[in-house]
Amino acid sequence: MLIFTDLKCGFAGIGLETAKDLARRGARVLMACRDPQRGQKALEAVRAEATGGASVELLSLDLSSLQSVRACAAKVLALEPRLHILINNAGAVNVAHAPTKDGLHDTLQVNFLGPFLLTVLLVELLQRSAPARVVFVSSSYHRFARLTPDLLDYPRARELHAVQVYCLSKLAVVIVANELSRRLKGTGVTVNSIHPGAVNTAIFRHFPPWISLFFNAFLRIFMIVTYFVIDRACVTACVMAFPIV
User: Fold this and answer.
1) Which is catalytic among the residues 141, 154, 166, 227?
2) Which partner from 8, 64, 199, 203 sits 20 to 30 angstroms from 17, CA to CA?
3) Are 168 and 139 in contact (CB under 8 A)?
4) Keywords assigned by UniProt (predicted)?
5) Where are the beta strands (DSSP E) in 17-150?
6) Shortest CA distance to 167 belongs to which of 202, 203, 135?
């Protein structure tokens, strides 16, 4: 059984394509989504491609709420005897620098702090299910960030540009994945962070149109070798989740 987060868009994105790929492999898939209507559309799309006895279910999860993260983890622990794969897929950019209910920067909480808390809450189940794998979807943009503890506080983070906060969140993901990998060595739980490649997703949808067009044009021109259409975007995550396939 595996979980992946977060289906923000519901009908498009790396998470949706990952779920389809894993369902085609016959896996039991728990998809975590904060929008019930879009999540239902995604659920139907994934179930339509499921083969080999695969089962696909939908969980409620809002990574911008730590209470929601804890509730989601509690439901998994109560219902599932095993968890072999956890894919933390969330990637968002909040251009408004809005704080969450927990008083944290939305981008940092959705991309980093929420997935990290979910992983910590499920780590004992992962260990009991070993061999197991945790995959954090990061980004090569982490190279443009420099992390200091004060930047995780909302007042300090809101002083940065939205893209800087995104880069910061993805650097934090890499650091945490590396540390978890070190701490879980020998337990049968493998932890990796990945760069999925330059992918044509809707991540820049909240930016002004000219900025969105610029980023997409830049990626197409200067990263043409690794610029993926959306249905190929799941390849890296699936290879890390199923390394022998």
Assistant:
1) 166
2) 64
3) no
4) Membrane, Oxidoreductase, Transmembrane, Transmembrane helix
5) 28-33, 55-60, 85-88, 132-137
6) 203
Q: Which of 55, 67, 53 has its CA nearest to residue 29?
A: 55
State in words which class domain 2-198+231-241 has: alpha beta
Give 144-178 as a DSSP string: G----GGGGSHHHHTTS-HHHHHHHHHHHHHHHHH
Q: Say how far apart CA 136 and CA 169 lie, in whole Å.
A: 12
Helix, strand, coil: what percent of the chain each, to 5? 50, 15, 35
CB 176 within 8 A of CB 136: yes
> Model pTM greater than 0.85?
no
Question: Per-residue pLDDT tens for 104-151?
Answer: 999 999 999 999 999 999 999 999 999 999 999 888 777 787 888 888
CB of 177 closer than 8 Å to CB of 191: yes
